[in-house]
Amino acid sequence: MEKVIDIKHIKKEYQLGTQQIFALKDVSLEIMKNEYVALMGPSGSGKSTLMNILGCLDTPSEGQYTLNGTQVAKMHDDELAFIRNKEIGFVFQTFNLLPRLSSFENVALPLVYAGVGEKERKERTEEVMLMVGLQDRMNNKPNQLSGGQRQRVAIARALARKPKLVIADEPTANLDSQTGAAIIALMRWMQQNFKISFIFSSHDNGLIKAADDLIVLRDGVIQSIRRKPDGEAPPPAALPDDSGGSAWGSTPQDTD
Fold it and tell me: Average pLDDT of each block of 10 consecutive residues along the chain (256 residues)?
């Protein structure tokens, strides 16, 4: 199976005055194409540092990181920005939508930065908003949307560039349990139908149970990895019917 992520002996240290802090001590990990991976760990475990490195938002002090066959551990900021724009989509717990822009404009923004032409940009934005069931909310601004709808806009934005990898930081943390379950179902459905690898940090039992693999960090090292048995396929993601309909299949509604 093709590797999306291959990190070997990653270390990350910070200098705090005269004190040396080791956020990651020696982490090695492989994540395959089209996996749905949960990352857990208490405060101070190194989870956020690892997520930042996996997302090319930071670089390790030592070690190797190969993303889709490209060595990224020693890249400079401009090179990392190019990789992020090309390969990775991000979903944040606080949505990170620009309040003055419509849903459509928020989703299209990464394509503007990527230099995608207006016609293709419009088509791709409409496509992903249809995928997440928000084709009737394109002109709404974030304050006119529910929490679940805002998170679905954030997911559409992450998918607009057609990334091979989506990194989600506590994507259900600010949602009620029913809306969170709808977001979990949506991400799982997209992972299965569009062959996108998802890596998410969470304390949400629903997200964790849905994961193919569970990686637990503690004190800067991987404490345990629980992988699904070889040959065991995850159950197909079944989504509630959406009255809006979609050429991509039905998408979950939220009640937030």
Answer: 91 88 93 90 90 93 94 92 89 89 95 91 92 91 92 90 89 83 83 86 81 91 82 52 37 46
pTM of the entire predicted model = 0.81
Per-position DSSP letters for 204-242, written without gaps between them = -HHHHHH-SEEEEEETTEEEEEEEPPTT-PPPPP-----
Question: CA–CA distance from 251 to each of 148, 161, 165, 225 (Å)?
Answer: 12, 20, 21, 31
Nearest to 210 by CA among 244, 176, 183: 183
Question: Which uninterrupted H or E stretch holds 79?
Answer: helix 77-87
Instruction: Scan for tokens 């979950």, then name that residue.
Output: 252
Run of H or E including 32: strand 19-32
Contact, 213 vs 227, CB < 8 A?
yes
For helices 147-159 and 103-113, angle between their N-to-C axes, nearest 10 degrees = 20
Cβ neighbourhood burial of 251 (10 Å; 0-12, 13-18, 19+): buried
Instruction: Give me the residue label for tokens 């020693």.
Output: 74
